[in-house]
Amino acid sequence: MRSRIILLVFLIAVTATAHAQFFPYPVQKRTLPNGLDVIVIETPEFRNVLSFNTLILAGSGRENEKGRSGLAHLFEHIIFRHDHDTAKAYQPAIEKMGAFNNAYTWYDVTYYHPLTFTSNLEQLAALEGSRFRELRYSERVFRTEAGAVYGEYRRSASDPGLRIEEVLGDLMYGPAHGYGHSTIGYLDDVQDMPNAYKSAVAFYDTYYRPNNAIVVVAGDVKADEVFSVVEKHFGAWKAKKTPEQPDPKPFNGPKKQHETWESDIPPRVLVAYMVPPYVPGSPEAAAMDVMSDLMGSETAPLYKKLRYEEQVASDMGVDNTSSVGFDARPMSTYVTVAKDKYDTQGRSLLDRIDRDVATAFEGLSWFSSQPDSAARLEAIKSQLRYDILASFNSPANIAENIAMYYRFSRDPQVLEKVAAAIAALKPTDVDAFAKKYFTPKNRVSITLAGKGGAK
Predict the structure, then answer these.
(1) I want to staple 143 with a disulfide (CB 3.0 to 4.6 A). Which of 126, 194, 242, 319 is the partner?
(2) Residues 219 and 368 in one domain
(3) With contact defined as beta carbons under 8 Å apart, do 118 and 131 qualify?
(4) Is 242 inside any structural domain?
(5) Alpha-carbon gap, residue 73 to 326, rounded angstroms
(6) Is the pTM of this model over 0.85?
(7) What is the pLDDT of residues 293-330, one digit of tens each?
């Protein structure tokens, strides 16, 4: 009895609640003795809806063993096969709930996000706790899922975007860091994955730990009940210290590479800059947050030049989501080149677009000197604030937004700090960010075009 009282006092002591002005819901947090953070967002207006999410703070970026890339994504598959071919099989039990159940893997995270009815809370927590706490599967299941990943790679290989991602990782990081390969892994590693059973078990044992995970529950729930149920089913999960991640090394740009695609497709141009780790609430993080709209929206000068004035691009965008990482990550501008213009101008057009993008980004060092810089930035900040708020449109999206920001600082007030940093961002902060990071030494350029077409 005494130990139970001590445990209860400990849990109460590490319970925190944050409810400030930007995020419209209270964020309630409890840390279990094994280090698992549990976040609850009560959203009673979404009647009878339960979003139960488990975030593992490890993705393909933690795959540093040579010849063993793709294991984080493989386990995203395998964990759905928990207790396969037994009376306790995970997948049939989930299906009986009528749950929508899925997951995804990225460089820093693997995210599991079943969605069901509130009445299934106890049963769902028991199933989720079981597969994360003590995953059981056979080597036969492992080999089957490894084959499924190879099939997925072959499908993805038909998209030139995968090839560009692979080249970018190789040029910016190389094989010494987990960011140097795509999430799905190197082709040779994926083909050999059926033989990687021991390495895969070691990856799961190392990173699938409560102190390296976050449970986020949102919906028509009561926080006290959720805390109790999660502690019941996740409390026996054993903690283990995870290894330190090696820092990415400077890659000494600029670097440029051209890729030839087998089929005749609209060419692509990618220009990427290595930017710093994301620190919510910092001026640098706020600068990264606004960059997609500042440089890639339909009102951005670069977009208007390539898309409308010169009509050399059929599509263009700045992906600042992939730059949001625990370590330094690329911020990339993707341009799909107008096929008819490329057919007449050839590689020189790709090189010109590459220069235009680089000139525009590196020119942001003087952004504050532009007559309309303050007005443009204020309009973008206002739109970004609205976009973030508009994304809180379901328990699933609320939980995911919280999880993806919370993972950096484990602060339940993180969204308030993100919003405050965006509000405080000034044109001179954009200047400082560009001077430090949008430089030739931080730049990688990749062009890709089909074998035919250019005359």
Answers:
(1) 194
(2) no
(3) no
(4) no
(5) 18
(6) yes
(7) 999 999 999 999 999 999 999 999 998 776 678 888 99
